[in-house]
Each structure stands twice: as C-alpha cells, then as structure tokens.
Design goal:
291 residues, alpha+beta, Jelly Rolls, five-stranded antiparallel sheet, 11 helices
Length: 291
C-alpha cells in the first residue's frame, strides 16, 4: 500500500528537467525513497551530484555508473491514479466553504484502497479534456499534469439514466465523468464518490436534484449557475466551489471553455438524480456566456 508521501516522492523523482528547483526536488524525492529502501546509496549519490543542475537528467549518470532505479514512472496506472487523488486533495485544501472538509475526510478514509485501472475511449474526453487542461496548466500545473496522466487509466462514463427528452440531447451526449474513489471506481469506497466531471462548451446541465450532498470544485470558468427553476443565473469563475444540499435543485450553464471540475458526493450515492422541470431551458441553451 502506497502512502501519499510515497506517491508524491515517486512523482517528484520524475520532475520536469529545466523546471526551477527540479534538481533539488528530485534529490529530496530520492532521499525519501532511499529511506524506504527503494533507492540504493549509490543511486542516491547520483541524484545528489545532479541536484544543483535543474536541466541535468540523472539517468545519464546512473547508466554510466551501471545503476538503475527500478520504480514505475508516475504515468503508469496505479501511481498515476494515486497521484491524482493526492493532487485533488491538495487542491481541495486550498478552497473555502462548506463540504470541503467532509470530502477531504472521506478521501483520507478511502484513498489507500486497491487501485483498478479501467480505460475506454470516450468522445467527450477526446474532444474537450485537453483544452480544459490547457487553461488549468498556467495556475495549477501539478494538478493538470496529474489529470492528464491518469485520464487514460480511468473509466469515463457518459451517464444515460436521465430520460432523454427531459435532460436534453446536448447534455446527454456532451458530458463524461470518471470516479476516482467510490463504488465501482478506480479505488473502492462505500457511500462516497470522488471524481472528475467534464461538460462540452455552451451545454446546459438542466435543473436537477439528488439526495446526495454534492461538492463541485470547478477547475475552469466562467460558467453560470442557478439554484432552482426561475432563479437568476449567477456567473462563477474557476476555483469557486459550489455546495449543493440534499434535494436542492441546481443547474449549470457551461461557458465558452469546457467545464471541468472535481466533484464529491458525501452520502446517499446509490440514489439517482432526477430532472426538475423548468420552462426556460431553450432560452438558456441559446444564450452564450462571455469568456
């Protein structure tokens, strides 16, 4: 079982060459892994020698000395998924508001379970994940990289349980989600769901409700929100969390960028959502939010 510090060290060992401070970051990771008995003293010395030079790849000196570090890189399935869970939790720790502490507590409870990677092509992810991550890269590069590395190993689902005539064709075919922790997720859990949610630009996720309390932590924006049919649409930027109480109706109008968020359902995850009727969906679907 791999702890969060160990996952972080394995990722830092592969820190991008040339990134300021990356040489020392790789050396600190090597020291941590050496203490765990995963890196030999001779290999650790190579990382020490290379640490002042951020652009120097320790692999060359390791090879010259006949040494190797037999650790899977972070892009392989289990390290990638565990690193994404850690980066998601780190990100949530920076956010204010209700629901954040509860989601983080449940993440800590379940995060060390066994990992099952499951990949299936999804056209929404293929079309819209890369542009969403491009907007996240400048401000949260570690989180963006972790999502990018883990995405091919996740089971992305386009949810089809809503009645098509109620939820609308644009949302029905224009969204995907992947559960990181939960029932049937990459890491198993009971009555908890943590994952990623992606919606194509300009789509309306029509008014709906569910028994589960829900945290949305949007990574892109701006997007429009309302909390009940007929309520005004409120624009929110990225990194402004939304906490939906059990049974409370809510709607999301996606802006010009794909909507990408971290979500958490903290209980009653086995109860499905249902559409809450409203009369202005056509108007909302036709409107455009300025970037």
């Amino acid at each position: 079982m791999t702890g969060a510090e160990d996952v972080r060290a394995r990722a830092d060992l592969h820190a991008a060459l040339g990134q300021p401070g990356s040489g020392r970051l790789r050396y600190a990771a090597a020291m941590h892994l050496h203490r765990l008995g995963l890196i030999s003293p001779e290999a650790l010395e190579v990382y020490r020698i290379c640490s002042p030079q951020d652009r120097e790849d320790p692999a060359g000196l390791l090879a010259a000395r006949g040494l190797s570090v037999d650790l899977p890189p972070p892009g392989t399935p289990e390290p990638a998924i565990r690193l994404l869970v850690e980066e998601a939790d780190r990100y949530l720790a920076t956010l204010p508001g209700p629901g954040v502490a509860e989601v983080r507590s449940l993440t800590a409870r379940w995060r060390c379970g066994p990992v099952t990677a499951s990949a299936a092509p999804n056209p929404v992810v293929a079309a819209h994940l890369a542009p969403a991550l491009a907007t996240l890269d400048p401000t949260h590069p570690a989180l963006a990289a972790a999502i990018r590395d883990a995405a091919p190993h996740l089971n992305w689902v386009t949810y089809d349980a809503y009645p098509p005539d109620e939820i609308g064709e644009a949302f029905r075919t224009g969204h995907a989600f992947a559960s990181l922790i939960g029932e049937g997720a990459a890491i198993p859990a009971e009555d908890f769901d943590l994952g990623l949610f992606l919606i194509a630009p300009h789509v309306v996720y029509r008014d709906h409700a569910h028994p589960a309390p829900e945290l949305y932590a949007p990574l892109t924006g701006p997007h429009g929100w309302r909390f009940g049919p007929g309520a005004p649409l409120v624009l929110k930027g990225p990194h402004e969390p939304v906490w939906n109480l059990p049974g409370a109706p809510h709607l999301t109008k996606v802006g010009p960028l794909p909507f990408l968020c971290i979500f958490g359902w903290t209980k009653d995850t086995g109860h499905p959502a249902h559409v809450v009727p409203a009369t202005d969906w056509a108007e909302l679907e036709a409107m455009r939010i300025e970037g």
